[in-house]
Amino acid sequence: MSGAPVIDGLQCGRYDRELIERMRDGGLRAVTITASFWEDALETMDVLTGWNDLVREHPDVALIARSGADIDAAVATDRVAIVLGTQNSSLFNDRIGFIEHFWDMGVRIVQLTYNIQNAIGSSCYEPVDTGLSRFGREVVEEMNRVGMIVDLSHVGERTSLEAIEASERPVAINHANARAIYEHARNKGTEVLDALVAHGGVLGVCTYNNIAGDYAATLDGSAELVARHVELLGIDHVAYGSDLDPNSPADNIAWMRNGRWSRKVQHGASRPDIAPPPEAWIDNFDFHKFGEVRDRLVERGLLSAAEAEQVFFGNWKRMYDEGFAPAGATQQEETR
Amino acid sequence: MSGAPVIDGLQCGRYDRELIERMRDGGLRAVTITASFWEDALETMDVLTGWNDLVREHPDVALIARSGADIDAAVATDRVAIVLGTQNSSLFNDRIGFIEHFWDMGVRIVQLTYNIQNAIGSSCYEPVDTGLSRFGREVVEEMNRVGMIVDLSHVGERTSLEAIEASERPVAINHANARAIYEHARNKGTEVLDALVAHGGVLGVCTYNNIAGDYAATLDGSAELVARHVELLGIDHVAYGSDLDPNSPADNIAWMRNGRWSRKVQHGASRPDIAPPPEAWIDNFDFHKFGEVRDRLVERGLLSAAEAEQVFFGNWKRMYDEGFAPAGATQQEETR
């Protein structure tokens, strides 16, 4: 299986040609990046400008994936397809009309909330989860219409459940684990995951050490984390989302955790009350490790080769093929 | 020729279904509207939201023209294709990266300045015309690259000349006349029009009374205004741009003339020092009049039927077919 293409469901680094070459050399053919955590519409457009610049300057190694066909092109030409995603809905400036504008600009996945409550709903860290707000219902409906995947990775349980039920299309949880496998506020409870699966969604198993514990510390642990999720959710609903942040400046963690909303120290997913989990085995430097986890699953008989390919490519590919297209679009209409 | 499709190169009204139906019934199959005069990026995106809403709610009468093929579709299905244009570059928030973002959102024509100097260059009313600025050169180059037509209707003479020379693609002057035919600061001098023609551009003859005088007051005068421009510039370089503003609220003129930049009374194109010209014969209410001017030209032998069709459809169509596509695009790549 060595050499089969990999899709990483979520990263949040800072990208340059050298990093994209390393990802390509490691076997990645699509990566969903984070274009904003807290940034509003204009700030996100400035970030997207940076992505347009990078891809325009380095078309021999990267392209923006506006459709599943673009990922096919990346695979065929040994390049990395960049899926433009966000980890917050702040880019919409609370305007339903901006969803289509950002789809036009290439954004294809938006996580409804980041670490705090917003106009759409509640985050996984809020003590009270209001569920999906009125605006949240409008947003889910509009994202379904234009072809933008709803992501629920940092979203609260009740908001997640209501978003899955409100959505007429499958949703993603591109970087989180099952609480039943590793207990953490950032991970998802059974009710949410049952609903995700029932509605055709996909969970990106995540070896970020704070939300995966010891599983993340070794190659075998990473493989077992995947295998346990497949047992729990079924092979069609498990993929991979590393949450890696390669090349990030030292203050990036503070930016992600605090944004501009608090002056007090915010811990994000880290838990100062317990011993810190060991460093993750999958790291920012060697992208071959994705394929090594996949191959280890097969070596150990935990998954068949076809099943492992689904986790590390096929399930995201299926979701992207369908989810990036406007509702009711034919092949020709897909790119508008 | 009755019934042949018409393209109006520039309007600045407020549109609803009823107005679009009237335009359709009058024979218009494409209209370039004004999405902003002074509005910045976010404000223009709000305006574009309104256009997306209108077209989504009334797809049986209107569509957004992202390519020449969309205008072909409008002609084939008796609908009005809306070309999203602006009469200022304020939507870019002085960012070269926003040109591509607005192209993605459907904008296909941008006028470099409105009535005052800006970061790109000078307007036709400024006492000193700086010419195309450094940012202006970046903008023209980028608009050429993405497939966004440069318009020079309210732009100063020197800035216009330098923009034409800097542009590798034909430019438009979608609503102005030749000073040689009617003297006015808003109209274009001989040097600019010679350069326009030499570089393949198109002038939209304009029956806005303040910049056309008595020509605009009658059907025959309107026809003569067109014929004189064809004599002057050649049949390939003359089209029509009414500058009509149907359905506009009473304060729209003040908004256009003053924007937010001045508290003093600004006159725009009106000249309080002379007797006001008569009301224009072409008005906001009967869109059949475009076709009547075209047919009168033929009746009077001023133009052949084929030439009149070029003025009222073919020249804009040619410019839009070529100008809306990214540089070097094939047919398939046109819509990205």
Automatic annotation (TrEMBL), chains A, B:
GO terms for molecular function: dipeptidase activity. Keywords: Dipeptidase, Hydrolase, Protease. The keyword Phosphoprotein does not apply. Its EC number is 3.4.13.-. InterPro entries: Metal_Hydrolase, Pept_M19. PROSITE patterns: RENAL_DIPEPTIDASE_2. It is an enzyme of class 3 (hydrolase). It holds the Pfam family Peptidase_M19. This is Membrane dipeptidase.
